[in-house]
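wait is this the right file?? whatever heres the structure
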């Protein structure tokens, strides 16, 4: 981040605003929402600024040209004149004194920038694009304004009112967080939003007594499918649970962009498996989930793709059941459908394939033990997970059991992500393609005549490598 987001206590801030046109007026109106002291210096003053100065004791209006001594005793400076030389001069002298200065609409001369704000005081949402995409920022703000209740401030006021009460009753930070989440997500929060504060307080008192006496939510495990990599493909439910998790157990196929969406203070535990290198055995992963849940944590087991398609989610659930632990399963877009869709390869198509098989190409003792005759069918698509290392064996076995050497095949690396790469060929020539040597896991393999559609249906072209 070039700009560090921070909320400053404005009670002790003295702001200097140089300029008094309509642009300066908008900054002044924003500052007047805080207790900051404001000094405005300008030889010409718009009617809006005159009105604001007349209505507020926070403002001192000085109708003259800027003087260098005006910056003395100020902690924050806004410059909003139409004179580029004056703007640059004020920036330079303020910068020399390590003072925070903002030259409006001139990002290179800003030592800080004012964010786009959704104001539901005491709840404030501030957003920034670093000055590079103001229109996009306004678009995002409009979206947020439409989904955040106007009276969400009532939840903020209620939380502030009872913050010390909860802190005195519950010594654990985790207990306090759980309790507040139960309050805000449940019928107490609904009563607050409806303006029925008296009823909300009655329910609140009862809930706090019960929670203090040990009636607390037990630990849970959420098996969440993270999809093939693009964070936009997460489900709403997956995102919500990721934001609630105390502990996140994730594997190698979970992209960094998706991990960024996990709650900031959640403990993250990596249990990834790579070719011939299992960091933690599967049995130990299952035991780890049970251990964390029994400690009272909300655990998200974040899996690339879908938990129930080569994700070993069933094995982990069996362990949870043995320990009497509640769990939920959140489906994800599996790698096969994600890769096929983003490569423009329909897994089924009326003219090419009426069935599809998902299987694993994982090597064991340098062999792949599959029912090869069952995979060699007419009008059929076969998808191999974890098959990059075993590609020569896959091609040889399919040809050996009757599949045409000219059958199209596609290898898709990092499906749905910016570095997605696609290499196509046929069973008899794909191994010799020099581009295959550049591919790295995770790479999915699709075999079938549907691969011929890639050249015409491929819509996600960023970073693709095609034969």
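ok assuming it is, sequence goes like this
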């Amino acid at each position: 981040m070039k700009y560090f987001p921070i909320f400053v206590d404005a009670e002790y801030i003295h702001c200097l605003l140089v300029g008094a046109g309509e642009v300066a007026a908008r900054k002044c109106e924003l500052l007047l929402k805080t207790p900051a002291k404001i000094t405005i210096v300008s030889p010409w003053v718009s009617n809006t600024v005159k009105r604001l100065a007349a209505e507020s004791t926070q403002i001192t209006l000085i109708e003259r040209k800027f003087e260098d001594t005006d910056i003395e005793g100020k902690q924050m400076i806004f410059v909003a004149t139409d004179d580029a030389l004056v703007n640059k001069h004020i920036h330079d002298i303020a910068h020399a004194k390590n003072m925070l200065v903002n030259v409006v609409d001139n990002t290179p001369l800003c030592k800080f920038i004012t964010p786009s704000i959704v104001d539901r005081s005491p709840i404030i949402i501030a957003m920034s694009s670093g000055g590079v995409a103001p229109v996009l920022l306004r678009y995002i703000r409009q979206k947020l304004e439409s989904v955040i209740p106007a009276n969400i401030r009532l939840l903020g006021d209620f939380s502030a009112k009872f913050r010390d009460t909860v802190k005195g009753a519950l010594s654990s930070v985790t207990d306090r967080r759980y309790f507040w989440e139960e309050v805000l997500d449940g019928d107490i929060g609904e009563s607050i939003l409806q303006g029925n504060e008296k009823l909300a307080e009655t329910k609140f008192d009862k809930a706090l007594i019960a929670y203090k006496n040990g009636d607390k939510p037990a630990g849970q495990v959420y098996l969440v499918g993270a999809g093939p990599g693009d964070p936009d493909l997460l489900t709403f439910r997956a995102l919500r649970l990721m934001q609630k998790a105390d502990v996140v157990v994730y594997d190698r196929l979970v992209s960094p962009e998706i991990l960024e969406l996990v709650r900031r203070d959640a403990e993250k535990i990596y249990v990834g498996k790579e070719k011939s290198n299992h960091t933690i055995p599967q049995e130990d992963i299952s035991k780890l989930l049970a251990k964390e849940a029994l400690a009272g944590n909300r655990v998200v087991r974040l899996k690339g793709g879908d938990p129930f398609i080569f994700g070993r989610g069933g094995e982990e659930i069996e362990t949870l059941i043995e320990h009497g632990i509640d769990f939920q399963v959140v489906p994800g877009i599996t790698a096969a459908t994600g890769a096929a869709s983003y490569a423009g390869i329909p897994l089924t198509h009326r003219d090419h394939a009426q069935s599809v098989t998902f299987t694993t190409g994982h090597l064991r003792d340098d062999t792949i033990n599959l029912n090869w005759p069952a995979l060699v069918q007419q009008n059929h698509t076969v998808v191999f997970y974890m098959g990059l290392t075993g590609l020569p064996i896959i091609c040889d076995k399919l040809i050996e059991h009757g599949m045409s050497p000219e059958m199209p095949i596609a290898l898709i690396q990092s499906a749905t992500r910016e570095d997605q790469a696609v290499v196509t060929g046929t069973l008899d020539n794909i191994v010799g393609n020099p581009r295959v040597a550049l591919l790295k896991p995770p790479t999915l393999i699709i075999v079938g005549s549907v691969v011929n559609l890639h050249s015409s249906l491929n819509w996600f072209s960023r970073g693709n490598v095609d034969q």
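The radius of gyration is 30 Å. so i think its the right one actually
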